[in-house]
Amino acid sequence: MTNEVMLLGGMTLVTFLIRYPLLAMSGRLTLPPRLLQALNYVPPAVLTAIIVPTIFMNGNSLWLGVDNPRLMGSLAAIGIGLWRKNLLLTILAGMGFFLFWQGVFG
Amino acid sequence: MIMASKLAQRPWQEFWAGARQTIPLIVGAIPFGIIFGTLAQSSGLSFAGAIGMSAIVFAGSSQFIALGLLATGTPLGIIVLTTWVVNLRHLLYAVSLVPYVKHLSQSWKLPLGFWLTDENFMVAIQRYRHDDPSPYKHWFQLGSALAMYTSWQLCTLMGLTLGASIPNADAWGLDFAMVATFIGMTIPYLTNRPMVATVVVSGMTALLAQGLPHQLGLMVAAIAGILTGLVTENHLEQSDD
After folding, report:
1. Position B191 pLDDT exceeds 60
2. How many angstroms separate the CA atoms of B29 and B60, rounded?
């Protein structure tokens, strides 16, 4: 129990100390133009860095075959996303195709 | 008079628009939250511990990683360190928000900071960068944040209570919903060559750096992608001159 309190306290503290301080100081910060320009690339860069290993890695090895349901589901999501440009539809199509493919090869 | 009452409504219009815009992301996060609740108890976290983690840490992927580490008996300090590294990406979100929140009071900045997540940032930054002059865009971020927070708590609770009756809920791979969501959020950015270069380099680096300890590869890949976008953009501008 004490351990859980310390775990939650520690995780909360380190997370909050990443999220908040820059916002707290923002009134006194002026970002250089080059940094502002770079920040335009934050959303796609971070999103891609999060998902790519999840899609391609199986333990410690690359999984590139058509029997990889995450890869096939991702391709379906990319296709639908580029075609229809609708976020909800992209999520549902990707998820549906992933589950279907997992059923086929699972 | 009519103008004044219309203006007075604007903050709440922004608030609800933010919540509405977050609905697809909530759909993507529901399975994730439920699996977290399901896995929590088998990893050795108590019912209250799982509820508390979602309520006060409120950072999905680090919560998952913490469960995995708990299950293998990892020391507390290492779990906290890993949480820190995994959540470092929020620093990039916070810097990005600086120009848009600097005029707000601390009573706004504090909750907006606490509720800053991947989903919240992605929705909010689009609103902030949209070039209409609304002075209430932070209400949009708040609406999105509260929608995300509320649904995450409900999903955790559902996973903890109903999860036990779903056999092997974690083996179904339902967390793929998050991947599909993030793909859907990335696609609108792919409108020019620097953005495409960013995504390609970030993805390749994420694979190459995958073995780095404490999930450090994520930050390395994100920064490599950002720098690639910047360099490509400046290079293209120069060759246009």
Report:
1. yes
2. 9
Is there a single domain that holds both residue B124 and residue B58?
Answer: yes
Here the ipTM equals 0.94
Both structure tokens of A67: 């029997």
Please report the pLDDT score of residue B184 as a whole number.
95
The model's confidence at residue A17, banded by pLDDT at 50, 70 and 90, is very high
Has residue B23 been placed in a domain? yes
In chain B, the number of structural domains is 2
Q: How many CB pairs under 8 A join A and B?
A: 267
Q: Return the closest-CA partner of residue B230 out of B192, B180, B174.
A: B192
Q: Do residue A60 and residue B96 have CB atoms under 8 angstroms apart?
A: no
In a domain, B1, yes or no: no
* B69/A contact by beta carbon, under 8 A: no
User: Can you give the residue range of the structural domain that contains B119?
Assistant: 10-189
Specify the 3-state DSSP secondary structure of A40: coil
- Left if phi > 0, otherwise alpha if psi is -120 to 50, otherwise beta: which for B134? beta
Tell me the pLDDT band of B9, cut-offs 50, 70 and 90.
Answer: low
Place B47 in a pLDDT band, splitting at 50, 70 and 90: very high
Residues 6+ apart with CB under 8 A from B145: B18, B111, B112, B115, B116, B117, B120, B124
Question: Own/partner pairs for B124-129, CB < 8 Å, 24+ apart?
Answer: B124/B18, B124/B97, B125/A42, B125/A43, B125/B93, B125/B96, B125/B97, B127/B14, B127/B18, B127/B21, B128/B97, B128/B100
State which amino acid sits at residue A25: M
Q: Which two tokens stand for residue A70?
A: 């995450």
Strand partners, A10: none
Q: Does B55 reach chain A within 8 Å, measured CB to CB? A: no
List of residues 6+ apart from A10 with CB closer than 8 A: B76, B77, B79, B80, B83
Whether residue B177 sits in one domain with residue B234: no
Helix B106-114 to helix B89-101 angle (10° resolution) is 150
Candidates B26, B112, B182: best to mutate against A (most CBs of A within 10 A) is B182
